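Dear Dr. L.,

I hope this message finds you well. Following up on our conversation about the binding site, I have prepared a predicted three-dimensional model of the protein together with sodium ion. For your records, I am including the exact sequence and ligand specification that went into the calculation, followed by the structure tokens. Please feel free to forward this to your student if that is useful.
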Amino acid sequence: MLNRSKMMKMKQENEKIAMITAYDFPSAKLAEAADVDMILVGDSLGMVVLGYDSTIPVTVEDMIHHGKAVTRGAKDTFVVVDMPFMSYHVSIEDALRNGMEIYQKTNAQALKLEGAGELVLETISRLTEGGIPVVGHLGLTPQSVNVLGGYKVQGKSKETATQMIQDALAIEKSGAIALVLECVPRELADMISQRLSIPTIGIGAGAGCDGQVLVYHDVLKYGVERLPKFVKPYLDNNEEIQSALSTYVQEVKQQAFPEEQHTFTIDKHLLPDIKG
Ligand code: KIV
Ligand code: NA
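The resulting structure of the complex is given below.
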């Protein structure tokens, strides 16, 4: 299994880290069988699995519920679990308690936190000190979508780009083991990747990052209709599944399913005599 020092070694040797999200037992099993380096139990589960409009309604309980299923499905893979909206913003005590609960109950290898505010940085360093590895997340941080004013590329001005570089360095200094960069111009992501000694994992941040992460349901086109520009779908599950389900429904209606081979039988004489 991956660990902090192997991750650093991969960065030094320019071996890219392949990460994908997973939210349940089957997706975790398939991701592990595909040899991904890391699995993220993202709070994106709020959107792709639970049908919310954003990640904001996702709770600590949701993350634990899905995180447990993922670690059961991918026992030999490094699993990172997102801390959800506001679970690390009320106070340092609250953040540490929530982090500890998610980490212990899910049996994950690390947690991920968005942003680089004072409390977030303190939480990263205190969790790390307590033995919980932390992954940072900058650029488009979906838990702050309403502060950012929508899902859009971040760091497009000199001020915001400078801030992001400073934030990235502060996250590394706080002890984070890796940093996710979401929707960041390639040139800025490259610059951050070169300045940090921990690996950057990009999503919509170009090929210069030390790794890539995508959402499981996007990669497989599974239940999602519109894909962001940065996604490459490797399969169209929507089409395959829709057609399989329609065929099933038709065969039930047409009495073409079940067939003999799907059916259990006993000898007629074993059936009870029911009279009158
Ligand atoms: O929740 C998620 O899926 C994420 C990735 C997009 C990085 O945070
Ligand atoms: Na997330």
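In brief: The pocket of sodium ion (ligand 2) is lined by residues 42-44, 55, 82 (CB under 6 Å).

With kind regards,
A. P.
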